[in-house]
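hey m, so remember when u said the tokens were messed up on ur end? i reran from scratch. heres the input so u can diff it against urs
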Amino acid sequence: MSRHPEVRWAQRIDKVYITVQLADAKDAKVNLEPDGVFSFSATAGTDGNLYESKLDLNDKVNVEESKISVGVRSIFCIVEKAEAKWWKKLVRDDQKAPHFVKVDWDKWVDEDDDGADVNVDGMDFSNFGGMGGMGGMGGMGGMGDMMGGMGGMGGMGGMGGMGGMGGMADMMGGMGGMGGMGGMGGMDEFEDESDDEGWSSYCVFLLVLINFHMLFLLAKCNQNFLMKCKLGKHYYGSLV
């Protein structure tokens, strides 16, 4: 029995952003029809569960101009509308939006405030029209591993060889616009080094403070000693 992946969407007047949230998707197949039928299927998880979804989009689309990028955490689609106008919702007016469809608030703008397009620098896009509706995308798994989630890393395309850096996502996870850096993991070592540097700085400051205090005490003792010598000399001198 198949499952439904979470689908998030946002729009501009001329396009729709559709993100299928499915980590480590294998054999992903995405199809887009001119009348607005969007379908997706892939396997994921240790048990190889099948995930599928099919949506009748609100209006017709331009398949040739639409694009898709497959990452390790999600499949991101830029669907060009056939007619530049705002949709009231993602699916057709006579249909109810499925429970797995949610608004992508990170990319959303209001109709009265149509902002700039979403930053897609670093994403590796393919064209829907040029690849026959993207059927049979299993061969792009390696591309997903290389380019996974680099949407927030503008200008860093082509850095697939950095897998050895371990999961930078642990450090960058909360920065909006940088989501999807799962393939570059673990800055824990850098965090540990930062902690060590902070502790070392504190120790140096403490040693300097202790040395300064000791010098002050020595100077004070020396002053008292000289004062006593002067008093003693005066006292014994008066007895002679």
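this time it looks ok to me. The first helix runs from residue 141 to 147. if urs says something different then somethings off w ur setup not the seq
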